[in-house]
Prior knowledge:
alpha/beta; TIM Barrel; 8 strands; eight-stranded parallel sheet; globular
Amino acid sequence: MDLPRNAFKAALARGELQIGLWSSLCSPIVAEIIGHSGFDWILVDTEHSPNEPPAVLAQLQAMQAGTATPIVRPAWNDPVLLKRLLDIGTQAVLVPFVQNAEEAAKAVAACRYPPAGIRGITVSGRGSRYGRVPDYLKRADAEICVLVQVETGEALAQLESIASVDGVDGVFIGPADLSASLGHIGDPGHPEVQDAIQGAVERLAAVGKPAGILTPSEADARRYIEWGYRFVAVGSDLGLLTKHADALAKTFR
Length: 253
């Protein structure tokens, strides 16, 4: 049995646009539905969703036969949380609230086996197909994708140093928290925030690192893609359910 290939990581390295969807509903049924919708990646959130490893595991299993690479966002830049997610088969993570190069390096180290990192070893986890993947311990690092989230003005000032950390595969700009940090809470469309978002992708391109972002607005998503963002979440399962449920109810009121 061979090590699963990380299609998202490979596509990102080739500079290909990857369209994704945010998932916050903590359901393997939802994960299976959206996993077959044709997206390139699905973000399974545990930072702002009541998602724990057993539920994440069920969602990974549900998406296994779909089109999308699962990316899991841990609740924090914590090596224990990251280790548990990797052991259940996660091959791509989005680490929140990375403020500087040291914190980015900490995230990478948590996802790498020694001597490159500090990831603890198990030989029987789902990540190694329960011990069936030959040389998993020597090969796993190559397929694990580490994305870091920049979401404050302080982090934005450190953007190049964060992006240049060896092992960081991409940088995700968090527009909601960034807008709050810049003094425009709840208004990611503010010109100052938009200027920062555009400037970030240009700065990341200059150091050869792909940029990602989330927006529920089609117009914003298309603009971000035009600016050069390479992994773009264009909505969320929660947003889709709310929007269409409300619209359906409204048609009968």
